[in-house]
Amino acid sequence: MVLNQATDYALRMLLYLAKQDNSNITDAATISTEEKIPKRFFFKITRELTRIGIVKSVRGKNGGFKLARKPEEITLYDIIEAAEEPIAVSKCLQDSRKCNKDATAHCIVRKKLGKLRNELNHKLQEINLKMLVEGA
Q1: 15, 8 contact by CB (below 8 A)
Q2: What is the mean pLDDT of the chain?
């Protein structure tokens, strides 16, 4: 599994925000410059992160962004799900119609990949922004 560039940018931005005093708002230009995130990607990512309640967007002259939740409440799973398609490991786990072997409950490969996906999701849910900021 290779994470896309949007996920990398989302992680950079959220780690940056997690290191800030959350009572302050940080403007888009500062974040995109500091984290080397192109503005066109920055605004696309922040729209999605705002929509799902990870980032709070403040409009106006002194507007910007801050975390909408505490860093310990935002997991790697949340971030990846926001920036990527749902984590599936295999196309047949996303949609059984995409299986060229007619994947059903009897397919051992599908069962094993499903178990792997569940374990991966569980591990990603155990890692949060606070842990990443603290280097834990």
Answers
A1: no
A2: 87
